[in-house]
């Protein structure tokens, strides 16, 4: 008879292998927290990339938002470096588009940073450009850079 602890160890190992194999195309993935007192428009979230990314590289960029279900708007306006990103977090009926358990929702959206053909980026700077200052209800902002799926 196999002990319960052995089964638990086997399941843990399998889950670890599955998670690692799913993330092979990821080059960078990081979330930055926003303070509980609110996100001020001059509070820049800085994502220092471990290597420069050139314009010639074919990569996929995603921005992830974790927000409370008390976030007062259905959309969010951000700047990433000099790019403006408009994200809808809820549909026209107010239903949150992201997933989550409890009062925290997570939603991701793709974006493509504008770069000249010879440019490369070493960091991404994210700020909000909403009218509220501070903006309440945003918990974390994440950046995910990966190779496209074949």
Produce the secondary structure layout.
Layout: H1 4-22, E1 26-33, E2 45-54, E3 60-68, E4 75-80, E5 83-88, E6 104-111, E7 120-128, E8 138-146
Antiparallel strand pairs: 1-8, 2-7, 3-6, 3-8, 4-5, 4-7
Quick gist of this model?
By secondary structure, this protein is mainly beta.
N- to C-terminal distance: 43 Å
Described by the principal axes of the CA atoms, the overall outline is globular
Strand-pairing-aware structural class: mainly beta
Strand count: 8
Could you please describe the fold and organization of this structure?
The chain is mostly beta strands and 150 residues long. The protein has one helix at residues 4-22; strands at residues 26-33, 45-54, 60-68, 75-80, 83-88, 104-111, 120-128, 138-146. The strands form two sheets. A four-stranded antiparallel sheet has the order 1-8-3-6, with no helix packed on it.
């Amino acid at each position: 008879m196999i002990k319960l602890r052995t089964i638990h160890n086997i399941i843990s190992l399998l889950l670890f292998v599955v998670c690692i194999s799913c993330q092979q195309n990821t080059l960078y993935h990081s979330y930055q927290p926003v303070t509980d007192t609110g996100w001020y428009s001059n509070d820049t979230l800085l994502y220092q990339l471990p290597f420069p990314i050139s314009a010639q590289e074919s990569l996929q960029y995603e921005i992830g938002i974790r927000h409370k279900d008390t976030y007062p708007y259905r959309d969010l306006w951000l700047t990433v470096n000099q790019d403006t990103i408009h994200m809808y977090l809820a549909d026209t009926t107010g239903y949150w588009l992201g997933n989550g358990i409890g009062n925290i929702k997570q939603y991701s959206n793709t974006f493509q940073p504008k770069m000249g053909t010879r440019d490369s980026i070493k960091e991404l700077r994210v700020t909000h450009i909403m009218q509220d200052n501070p903006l309440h209800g945003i918990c974390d902002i994440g950046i995910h850079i990966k190779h496209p799926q074949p």
